């Protein structure tokens, strides 16, 4: 008896002291809280302040591109093709025919490109500065140059090919190319429409706007649902559209495990949990719901993480939310999932205790089996302490 008691005591102590005695789907909540890992990470508990930081740094165009003005006046630039027609009300520049009747009171300058010096040339007016000027300003400059040589001249300047004030749309659109800026103004969605629209699904498409050396990316859906992102296009803007299906992975004590598509341009944590069919009622710890993600150093620092302990531009973050708290569901509805996020739900402590007790019961039974077998054999051989039950033999056999 003493030997068996000592054996069981030693076995229990060994089991309690080890982390790999019973099988688990992942780390326990206390393992994550301890921070002991070969890969350093920061544990951030979901709070309203954290959600505010994440919302302010969500991938959007609004706030990333400073120029939020309305339609911009189109000016002529180097390389633009312009046409000039000069009119006058009396004889002056125009030559009369032999009968003394003028064939017309205007002349047209052949189309010409604005030179690298920014000028165009008009007969009798000479070199006229055009770069950075509007059509109306160029017309007035030509009239001023002709006023001493023509009788009440008037000028019409036409922008035939708008090359310098154009924007470019590239990527997953039906008709990529360069497009002249509309003087009346147009927004990003209208610019994509001029490129004949998206090739892929809108909920899987992203839009990158490059302006003045800065880039800002946003889901295509945010251009529609959040109008502040749908800003006016400017000359020399580059709009790049690409398709990237958004997915997340669910592990642990959720109803289902695996990779799940967003199937929408935006999915909250509460919706992600629902896609994984919720938490397992038998095994999950509602206070131990985690999301694994990498955040920039700036975002991590604003959330209160000591980034000096980490190397590189991306900080590994584990977000934790307590769904035992009724308010936790409001937090999960505001937390936006990112592409390739990992959702992990830890087992409840009682589940591990139950598995451990079953494990001990199995070990004890296995150790007791030889003793039970030896006692049974001894009882059978001596004919004492044992009762043998047999099935009755049916009549007729």
**Low-confidence spans:** 14-19, 95-102
Count, helices: 10
Averaging pLDDT over every residue, what do you get? Answer: 84
| Spatial sequence of strands, sheet with the most strands | 1-15-14-16-12-13
Shape by Cα distribution: rod-shaped
| Helix content bin | 25-40%
Number of strands: 16
Q: What is the radius of gyration? A: 39 Å
> What is the rounded distance between the termini?
48 Å
Element string (H = helix, E = strand): HHEHEEEEHEEEHEEHEEEHEHEHEH
Q: How large a portion of the residues is in β-strands, by DSSP E? A: 25-35%
Class per helix and strand makeup: alpha+beta
Describe it.
This protein is an alpha+beta fold. It is built from ten helices and 16 strands. The protein has helices at residues 2-17, 29-34, 48-56, 135-146, 188-194, 220-225, 269-275, 297-302, 328-334, 349-382, and strands spanning 42-45, 81-87, 106-113, 119-122, 126-129, 154-161, 166-171, 177-180, 205-211, 214-219, 238-243, 247-252, 258-261, 284-296, 314-321, 341-347. The strands form four sheets. Strands 1-15-14-16-12-13 form a six-stranded mixed sheet. A five-stranded mixed sheet has the order 8-7-11-9-10. Strands 3-2-6 form a three-stranded antiparallel sheet, with helices on one face. The longest helix is centred in the last third of the chain and has 34 residues, at 349-382.
């Amino acid at each position: 008896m003493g030997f068996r008691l000592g054996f069981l005591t030693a076995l229990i102590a060994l089991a309690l002291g080890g982390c790999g005695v019973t099988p688990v789907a992942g780390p326990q909540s206390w393992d994550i809280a301890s921070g002991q890992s070969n890969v350093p990470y920061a544990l951030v508990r979901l709070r309203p302040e954290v959600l505010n930081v994440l919302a302010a740094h969500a991938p959007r165009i609004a706030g990333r591109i400073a120029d939020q003005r309305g339609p911009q006046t189109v000016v002529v630039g180097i390389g633009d093709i312009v046409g000039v027609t000069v009119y006058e009300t009396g004889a002056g520049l125009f030559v009369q025919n032999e009968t003394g009747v003028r064939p017309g009171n205007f002349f047209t300058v052949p189309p010409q490109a604005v030179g690298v010096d920014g000028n165009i040339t008009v007969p009798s007016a000479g070199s006229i500065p055009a770069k950075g000027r509007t059509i109306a300003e160029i017309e007035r400059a030509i009239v001023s140059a002709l006023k001493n040589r023509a009788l009440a001249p008037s000028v019409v300047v036409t922008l035939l090919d708008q090359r310098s004030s154009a924007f470019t749309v590239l990527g997953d659109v039906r008709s990529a190319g360069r497009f002249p800026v509309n003087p009346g103004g147009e927004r990003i969605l209208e610019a994509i429409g001029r490129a004949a629209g998206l090739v892929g699904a809108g909920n899987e498409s992203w839009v990158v706007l490059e302006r003045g050396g800065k880039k800002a990316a946003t889901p295509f859906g945010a251009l529609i649902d959040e109008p502040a992102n749908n800003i006016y296009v400017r000359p020399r803007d580059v709009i790049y559209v690409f398709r990237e299906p958004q997915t997340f992975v669910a592990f642990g004590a959720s109803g289902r495990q695996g990779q799940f598509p967003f199937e929408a341009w935006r999915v909250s944590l509460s919706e992600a949990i629902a896609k994984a069919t919720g938490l397992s009622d038998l095994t999950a710890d509602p206070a131990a719901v985690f999301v694994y993600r990498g955040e920039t150093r700036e975002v991590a620092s604003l959330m209160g993480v000591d980034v000096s302990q980490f190397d590189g531009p991306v900080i590994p973050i584990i977000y934790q939310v307590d769904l035992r708290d009724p308010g936790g569901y409001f937090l999960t509805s505001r937390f936006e999932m990112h592409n390739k996020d990992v959702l992990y739900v830890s087992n409840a402590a009682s589940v591990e205790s139950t598995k451990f007790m079953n494990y001990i019961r199995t070990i004890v039974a296995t150790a007791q089996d030889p003793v039970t077998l030896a006692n049974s054999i001894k009882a059978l051989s001596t004919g004492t302490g044992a009762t043998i039950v047999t099935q009755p033999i049916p009549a007729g056999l």
